[in-house]
């Protein structure tokens, strides 16, 4: 067993504990960025001057009227920027643009004594425009050839030989929607300047180090003049990985110019109309199967809707390509990727980071093709699984390890969910109910853990032991409700061998742990846990030497368990507090900086080959739904999940993450329907779903009536911190089972063997049109083809004949 993964006697990790801030959360005592405004004197409020056109050139910007509004202190424009007028890492996101690139683009910011004064000042700013042609939809961008960024191609095997050897070849297209993060806390920052000109920013950010870097660029100062702190976030889900930087820069610029603290907070409508979403995708594909239904070849092109700037679209697309195989071995593949440039908000990271989009494509293909092949969808999926011991590699060349876990979680779900008996019960129910149908679908996941960019796979920590034996830990990860801080406290307590109450955690700050990576890619516990463990081990080794002299033993024979040091075979004890005090008087250093880097990674972005992931997380879910044939309305009757988190660091936290991710994934796939005004009127490009009243989020009513989540047992992960695996993102894709169950329920309204297309999101309306198509034998009705998944499955013969 590796040093990193080995657990000591009586570890604190693995104990089910509540979230470290749970009491503060439920009592309202937990502080978020905007709460700090009320503890800060003389704060100015920032408000955006938004332009409500999808695409236009600014010909004049007059700020004088705003300065006449009572309470307005200053209007920020590009002339005020002392450094670089850009808020992105690709230098394609001007903080103060000359060209409006999406409906609601902010072109200036007003600072006021009150938020209302700033709002009225923003309304008074006069902007003259030359309106320009706009591309609002992904289809429009593709038709215009509007693309930006990298154009990766992933290839393996011999694609043409694979198709030549296929007994069945199908083609199709699939377009699916993005998703709004809808975190409870909108984007917020509070910037202050001290007497030396040092900038201190409280920011709701998943990436404090990058926020620091962008702010320093905008202000034209070195990074050591900027400190960024993140207390906690009221949700992030990827939406606060890249996009907070420019907002923090606005607050910092205002504070620098006025000498007063500046508060920035978007209201909900502003957040929805100004911040990026999950990328919607278009996929065009051709797939070949042998006579037994095993995949022989896949040729696909994925187009991501990047929005107006690149943001994180390139790595999102890369991960989508790397996950199009999901749990299936595809011996011959060619998958190309493109990023469409549209006049909408710049789409960004969202839980899963492109993985869900790539995996959804192959799951949709199998769901549509199974009836064509005369196979049960569960059987078709099983036949194409990666197999243990076969030396099978992904299309990008990484060996698939632990493939046996895929089979294990799959079989455990089948057993725990009683699939065989329930399918018989469902068949009997459907035969007796012509207007209501049920279905039960089973899907699996294989998700790679690590950042695709190798350099990001590093973490840092600073651990301090005080004379009284109390411990303070700092690490580079941010807390957005996912329980990272809870796990890190458990790691520190376990490594030092002390009770959890001895450990306290400090807010994430760039002046404590520098150059950290974003809390993203599900890597927060792996990277920061490794760094904390490293720092605590340095301290423990020093303390063991002190304890050894006190106990009259060799340091290698001393153990610290439950806050007591003992030598093996000895009866003498030394309490932790006494040990620390003794170490202090012996002038032993009681602080340590820890570091961790993920080993064994390699990625060549040019050839699109390598081993970018430390390991794969596996899971399987069975979902039963009931669908009404008159309306398409449905309910989720039962969900059974078995998920692989390795040897869990904190089981209660991990089960909560699995549950939350599943529901969020189900929201993306079935409810959350982003709509823009695509007409040629004055509101072209306007987001229509800009409030909770028009954008449907999952709630208690969408929760499964029976929800069973089990963590895979005996799943120790060699080479990861205390044998654990990442949990944040992978379970979101378990929600594919909901969509596939809805597809099968819709098909049950038609003749046996009908192949059903299903839009994504599969809203009740979309399910209704799928039911209507099933009743017609699978043919989409004229006028409603666009409501479906976009292009029906065609056989090879149909494709050749032009059908």
TrEMBL record:
SUPFAM superfamilies in UniProt: CO dehydrogenase molybdoprotein N-domain-like, Molybdenum cofactor-binding domain
Disordered: annotated span: 779-803
Sequence ranges assigned to domain Aldehyde oxidase/xanthine dehydrogenase a/b hammerhead in this UniProt record: 27-133
Signal peptide: none
Name under which the protein is recorded: Xanthine dehydrogenase molybdopterin binding subunit
Gene from which the chain derives: xdhB
């Amino acid at each position: 067993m590796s040093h990193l993964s080995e657990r000591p006697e009586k570890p604190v990790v693995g104990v089910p504990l509540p979230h470290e801030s749970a009491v503060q959360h439920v009592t309202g005592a937990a502080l978020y960025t905007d709460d700090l405004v009320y503890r800060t004197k003389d704060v100015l409020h920032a408000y955006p001057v938004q332009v409500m056109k999808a695409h236009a050139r600014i010909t004049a910007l007059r700020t004088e009227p705003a300065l006449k509004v009572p309470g307005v202190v200053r209007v920020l424009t590009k002339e005020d920027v002392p450094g670089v007028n850009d808020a992105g890492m690709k230098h394609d996101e001007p903080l103060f643009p000359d060209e409006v690139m999406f409906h609601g683009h902010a072109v200036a910011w007003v600072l006021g004594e009150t938020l209302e004064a700033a709002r009225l000042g923003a309304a008074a700013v006069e902007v003259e425009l030359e309106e320009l042609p706009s591309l609002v939809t992904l289809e429009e961008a593709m038709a215009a050839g509007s693309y930006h960024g990298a154009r990766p191609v992933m290839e393996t095997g011999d694609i043409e030989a694979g198709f030549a050897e296929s007994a069945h070849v199908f083609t199709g297209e699939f377009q699916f929607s993005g998703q709004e993060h809808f975190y409870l806390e909108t984007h917020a920052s509070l910037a202050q300047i001290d007497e030396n000109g040092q900038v201190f920013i409280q920011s709701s950010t998943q990436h404090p180090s990058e926020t620091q870097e962008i702010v320093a660029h905008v202000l034209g100062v070195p990074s050591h003049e900027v400190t960024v702190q993140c207390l906690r976030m009221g949700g992030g889900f990827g939406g606060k990985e890249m996009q907070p930087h420019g907002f923090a820069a606005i607050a910092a610029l205002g504070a620098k110019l006025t000498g007063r603290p500046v508060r920035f907070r978007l209201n909900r409508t502003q957040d929805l109309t100004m911040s990026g979403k999950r990328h919607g995708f278009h996929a065009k594909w051709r797939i070949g199967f042998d006579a037994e239904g095993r995949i022989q070849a896949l040729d696909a092109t994925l187009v991501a809707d990047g929005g107006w700037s690149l943001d994180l679209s390139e790595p999102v697309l890369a991960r989508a390509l790397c996950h199009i195989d999901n749990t299936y071995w595809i011996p011959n593949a060619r998958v190309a990727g493109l990023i469409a440039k549209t006049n909408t908000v710049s789409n960004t990271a969202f839980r899963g980071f492109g993985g869900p989009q790539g995996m959804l494509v192959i799951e949709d293909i199998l769901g549509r093709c199974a009836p064509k092949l005369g196979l049960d969808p569960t059987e078709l999926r099983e036949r194409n699984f990666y197999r243990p011991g076969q030396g099978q590699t992904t299309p990008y060349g990484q060996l698939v390890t632990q493939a046996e876990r895929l089979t294990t979680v799959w079989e455990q779900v089948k057993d725990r969910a009683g699939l065989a008996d329930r399918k018989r019960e469902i068949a009997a129910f459907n035969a007796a109910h012509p207007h209501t149908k049920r279905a039960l679908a089973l899907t699996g996941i294989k998700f790679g853990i690590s950042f695709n960019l190798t350099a990001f796979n590093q973490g840092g920590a600073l651990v301090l032991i005080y004379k009284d034996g109390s411990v303070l830990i700092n690490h580079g990860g941010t807390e957005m409700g996912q329980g990272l801080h809870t796990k890190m406290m458990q790691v520190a307590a376990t490594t030092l061998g002390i009770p959890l109450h001895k450990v306290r955690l400090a807010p994430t700050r760039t002046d404590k742990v520098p150059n950290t990576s974003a809390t993203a890619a599900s890597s927060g516990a792996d990277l920061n846990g490794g760094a904390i463990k490293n720092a605590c081990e340095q301290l423990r080794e020093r303390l063991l030497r002190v304890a050894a002299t006190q106990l009259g033993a060799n340091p290698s024979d001393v153990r610290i368990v439950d806050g007591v040091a003992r030598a093996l075979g000895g009866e003498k004890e030394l309490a932790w507090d006494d040990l620390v005090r003794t170490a202090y008087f012996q002038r032993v250093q009681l602080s340590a900086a820890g570091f961790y880097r993920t080993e064994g990674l390699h990625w060549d972005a040019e050839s699109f080959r390598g081993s970018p992931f430390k390991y794969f997380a596996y899971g399987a879910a069975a979902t039963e739904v009931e669908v009404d044939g008159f309306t398409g309305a449905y309910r989720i009757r039962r969900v059974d999940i078995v998920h692989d988190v390795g040897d869990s660091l904190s089981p209660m936290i991990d089960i909560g993450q699995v549950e939350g991710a599943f529901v969020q994934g189900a929201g993306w796939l079935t409810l959350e329907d982003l709509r823009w005004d695509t007409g040629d009127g004055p509101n072209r490009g306007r987001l229509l779903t800009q409030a909770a009243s028009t954008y449907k989020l999952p709630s208690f009513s969408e929760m499964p009536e029976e929800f069973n989540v089990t963590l895979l047992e005996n799943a120790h992960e060699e080479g990861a911190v205390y044998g654990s695996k990442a949990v944040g993102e992978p379970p979101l894709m378990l929600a594919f089972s909901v969509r596939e169950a809805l597809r099968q329920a819709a098909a049950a309204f038609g003749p046996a063997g009908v192949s059903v297309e299903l839009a994504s999101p599969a809203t009740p309306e979309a399910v209704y049109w799928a039911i209507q198509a099933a009743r017609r034998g699978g043919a989409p009705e004229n006028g409603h083809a666009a409501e479906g998944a976009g292009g029906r499955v065609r056989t090879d013969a149909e494709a050749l004949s032009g059908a």
